[in-house]
Amino acid sequence: MVFYVTGVGFPLPAELAARARDIMAGRVEPVPARDAATVVILREGPEVYLLRRTSTMAFAAGAYVFPGGSVDARDADQAVAWAGPSPAEWGAIFHAGERVARALVCAAVRETFEESGVLLAGPGPDSVVGDTTGDDWEADRLALIDRSLSFADFLARRGLVLRSDLLKPWAHWITPEIEHRRYDTRFFAAVLPEGQRTRDVGGEADQVAWKRPAEALALAEQGEIFLMPPTHHTLDELAGHDGLDSILAERREIVPIMPRAVETDGRMRLVIS
């Protein structure tokens, strides 16, 4: 995994430079990108919820990220009770088929609950659950993580409806072709529901924090924290807003962004063009 910046580019280490040349020459096929979803949880300030991935993770170890993860095959289950924009509407926004769009939205809500305890669902289309920090909620969260409980069954057992209207489409990032692990990730934004609390849930993260976007960027600039480029870019966008209303009102055009390797004067660099 490498860090890359817009325009200037990042010099690739020898191994990845060689892999980039092999891919460009057709000698090596890029790894397929797995569908994934990421959710920027917001609260007034505005502040964002960040997790630091453990140093043992195979991807983005030690990076501060938003909650999210890969789509589970069961996320496309049509049995999931649904309120808000339909999978077809989300598919039009993210340029995806209806089945993939359904899975992406379900993955976004499921992963957010797994990694923060925040649940974007309620007993009906106009309601949302309150505090989710009890032992029974924790048992369900752990069952979702170990995949012994499907998201559809979790919602059905509790009589809950997924609230897709609580999600705002934000961006679409694809891991560069030169990487050994690749993700096709749709970014969403969501406001922390009233009455709910985030918590340090452990697992893939060893620290969590609420930060103002500008504060997180300053810490990254000082080398205090490490941010992946999509996270850095998103925080930079959010830093231009003075409150939640401004963020939620922003009109977003969702265009795929995939950094690419280029060779200049014999040096391979990764750039966002």
Structure description:
By secondary structure, this protein is an alpha/beta fold. The protein has one domain: Nucleoside Triphosphate Pyrophosphohydrolase (Alpha-Beta Complex), CATH 3.90.79.10. Helices cover 30% and strands 26% of the residues. It has eight helices and 16 strands. Strands 3, 4, 5, 6, 10, 11, 12, 13 and 14 form a nine-stranded mixed sheet that branches. Strands 1, 2, 15 and 16 form a four-stranded mixed sheet that branches. Helix 2 crosses helix 3 and helix 6 packs across helix 7. The two termini are 19 Å apart. The N terminus is likely disordered.
Instruction: Examine the secondary-structure arrangement and name the CATH architecture.
Output: Alpha-Beta Complex
Oligomer: single chain
The helix/strand series, from N terminus to C terminus, equals: EEHEEEEEHHEHHEEEEHEHHEEE
Uncertain segments of ≥5 residues (pLDDT<50)? 1-7
Domain Nudix hydrolase: 32-233
GO molecular function: hydrolase activity, acting on acid anhydrides, in phosphorus-containing anhydrides; metal ion binding
Organism: Nonomuraea jiangxiensis
Protein name: Nudix hydrolase domain-containing protein
Which short descriptors sum up this protein?
globular; four-stranded mixed β-sheet; 273 residues; disordered N terminus; nine-stranded mixed β-sheet; 30% helix; hydrolase activity, acting on acid anhydrides, in phosphorus-containing anhydrides; alpha/beta; Nucleoside Triphosphate Pyrophosphohydrolase; 16 strands; Nudix hydrolase domain-containing protein
